Each structure stands twice: as structure tokens, then as C-alpha cells.
Amino acid sequence: MPVFLFCLWLILNGRITLEIVLFGLGVSAIVTLFAVKVIGYSLKTDFLILRNLPIFLVYILDLIYEIIKAAWLVMKMVYQADEPDPVLIEFHSGFQTDLQNVLLANSITLTPGTLTVFQEGDHFVVHCLRREYAENMDESSFVKLLRRLKLSKEA
To answer: How would you write the chain as a 3-class SS string?
Structure first.
């Protein structure tokens, strides 16, 4: 967080001088201390993010790929006037952390043709525009990548 805050400070200032750098370091440190003391932010979270950064980057690329692929399929269905075959499916992700479950729910919703209707814990109810979109949803590339994350229960 302190590095992110400092970079944000530099970007928002638009130029780099000794005064801006020193003041930015001080402000970043004060905001980080405030977050730790008042909000309950833990610096362990920064280490978890850094440790999982390569997986997060691959996840984002996979999400973009899946969005493009699904958008193409939905667009093709619309232009060919194919009838949708909507279905609601339920599954359990098996994830222990809220972060993994929320990332999965949002990724499903961002992907055209699918919508997370309900998510509580690791229980999901997903609406799919076509029956084939629902196949193997509990073993999708999203789920496989999220399983590789090394997170504690609190993260």
C-alpha cells in the first residue's frame, strides 16, 4: 500500500521534484499508518498480493480472453437468431476465502451470457443464456486459477 500510495502521489502531481518526493513519502507513510491503526489494514495483505501477483496477472488475461470469447458466441447467437436455452445451475466452488468467491462471482457476471444470481460463501447460483455455457462451470479456467492463489482465511 505505501508504494501504491506514493506512486499515486507522483502521478497526481504530474512532476517530480525533491519537495514533492519527500512530501509524498511523508503523506504515504501517514496514510498507511492511519489505515493500519484506524481501519485495521494489515501489511500482511501487501505480502499476500505480491506473492500472488503473477497468478493475478494471468487471471486478468484469462478473464479478458473469456470475455472476448463469450461476447463472440453471444453475438453470433443474436445475429443467427438462435433461440436461447436459459438454465440456472448451482454449484459449490470449494473456496475458503471471500476473496476467491467474490472474484469468481464477479468474473462469471462479467462474462457475457452468464450471470451470478446468488452467491453465499462457496455456494453459487448462476444463470446461463445457453445450456452449453453451464457445462463444467465448477471446473472453469477461473476456478483453476483461483485455486492456485495462496491466501490465508482472513485475506
So the answer is: CHHHHHHHHHHHHCCCCHHHHHHHHHHHHHHHHHHHHHHCCCHHHHHHHHHHHHHHHHHHHHHHHHHHHHHHHHHHHHHCCCCCCCEEEEEECCCCCHHHHHHHHHHHHHCCCEEEEEEECCEEEEEECCHHHHCCHHHCHHHHHHHCCCCCCCC
Give the pLDDT confidence of 12-42 residue by residue, as tens digits.
998 889 999 999 999 999 999 998 888 888 8
How much is the pTM? 0.73
Cell numbers 494471468 correspond to 58
In our burial notation (b when 16+ CB lie closer than 10 A, e otherwise), range 14-30 reads eeeeeeeeeebeeebee
Q: What is the pLDDT of residues 100-155, one digit of tens each?
A: 899 999 999 999 999 999 999 999 999 999 888 888 887 888 989 988 888 764 44
